C-alpha cells in the first residue's frame, strides 16, 4: 500500500451490514476493540495486514477498500457534479468518495436518473417537432442510455470478470480440444448435433447484422463479411445463450441495478459475449500465452487466430481470484468521439458525457491506420498510465463500400507497464515523459491545455474579460 487508507466509514458500514458489534469484529480479526474503534474513527489507517484479515475472516472483497476504487468513484462524482449550481472542489469530492462512498453512489444514481429523463424529454421533443416521424417517414424510437449504463456498472461491479461463467466456458474449450478460430468447425457441429441449430452463411449484404438466430426454424445465419475468427465468436455467443443460459440468467437476476427488462436483456447479451471470449480464449492458456509474449497483441492474435479487438477485450477480463492478470482498461471509439465499448477491471473512469480528451492517443490512431501507437499518459490526479491504440475496420471490403472505422484503446496503470512489450524504450520513471490528458474538457481542470474545447464546467461562469483564455466565439486567430 502506497498511502494510508483512512476508511473508517466503510468499515463501520461493513460491520453494520454483517450485524456485528465492534467487539465481534475485533474478535474475528484478532484485534483489540480499541484498535477497531480507532480505525472506524479514522484515527488509524486501514493497513494491508488488516485488509488481508478482513478477506480471510469475512470473505470480503478487499477491492472495495482500495485506493483504485476511490479514484474511480471520485472521478465519476466529479463528472456528475460538473454542472452543479455551485462548484464543488476536488478535495471535497475526494473526501466524499473516500469517507462516504454510499452517499457518492447515491449521487451517481440520481445523476444517471436525471440523464435518463433528459434523454426521454429530448426524444419526446423530437417526436413533437417531427410529428412523431423521422425524415424517411418511419416512426421515431427514443434511445435510452440508462440501461446501457446500468449494464456497464454491473460489469464494473464484478471487475469485468465472472468466475462461474468463465470456468464453464473454459471447460467447454477443454472438451473441444482446440482454441481460437480453430473452434469454428467444432462450434458448428455442437450447435447442430446438441441443439439442432443449423448454421448458414448469408449471401453478400443480405444480413446487415453479424448474426441472426431464428428460434422457430432453429437456424443461425452469419454475415458473409465475417472472418473465420469472427464467425467462431458469433457461434460461441449463440452456444453460450443455449448451454450456459442458467449461469447467465442467475448473474443477471442477482444484479440489483438491472431492474428493468431492457437492462436484463442487454446484460444477457453482454454475458453471452463474455462467455464466447472465454471459450475461444480460455483463461489459463490465454493468460500463460499473454505473459510469455509480454502481451504482444498481434502475436496473440496470430497464435489464436483472433482479431485485435477481441484480444484486447479478453485481456481486460483477466481477473480470476488467485491468478489475476494485468487490470487493463478497454475502450472503443469512433471518429466522432463516441465511446461504443468501455470495460475497466479497476479504477480508470471513462467519461459518460461531453466527449473524451483529444490528446488521448486513441484519436491519433485514426490518422495512422493499422499502426499501434503507444502513449504514457497522466491524469490530473497524478496517476499515470500506459495506453496503446490502433484503428480497426469492420464491414465488407470492396471499392465504394462504407466500412465502420473504430479505434481500440487498451491501457493499464504504469506500475504494470514493465510487463508489456510496448513499454520497451520508455522511461517509466520520468514524470515529465507522460502526456497530460483528462476525462474530457467539461470535467478537466487543466487550465493550460492547448486542446481545450470549452472551459472546465466548475469555472465556466468565472470569465475575466481582461484575461486571455478560452473564447466561446472565435478564440485564437489563425496563423494563416
Brief synopsis:
The protein has helices at about 10-15, 20-30, 35-40, 50-60, 65-80, 90-100, 100-130, 145-155, 165-175, 185-195, 230-245, 245-255, 260-280, 285-290, 295-305, 310-315, 360-365; strands at about 200, 210-215, 220, 320, 325, 330-335, 340-345, 375-380, 385-395, 405-415, 435. It has about 475 residues and is of the alpha+beta class. Strands 7-6-10-9-8-11 form a six-stranded mixed β-sheet.
Characterize the structure shown.
It is a single chain. The chain has 17 helices and eleven strands. The chain is α+β, with helices and mostly antiparallel strands. Strands 7-6-10-9-8-11 form a six-stranded mixed beta sheet. Strand 8 (373-378) and strand 9 form a beta hairpin. The termini are far apart. The model is unreliable at 132-144 and 460-480 (pLDDT under 50).
Which descriptors would you attach to this protein?
480 residues; alpha+beta; six-stranded mixed sheet; three-stranded mixed sheet
The secondary structure category is alpha+beta
Shape: globular
Q: What's the mean pLDDT score? A: 81
The biggest beta sheet reads: 6 strands, mixed
Rg calculated over all Cα atoms? 24 Å
- The total beta strand count reads 11
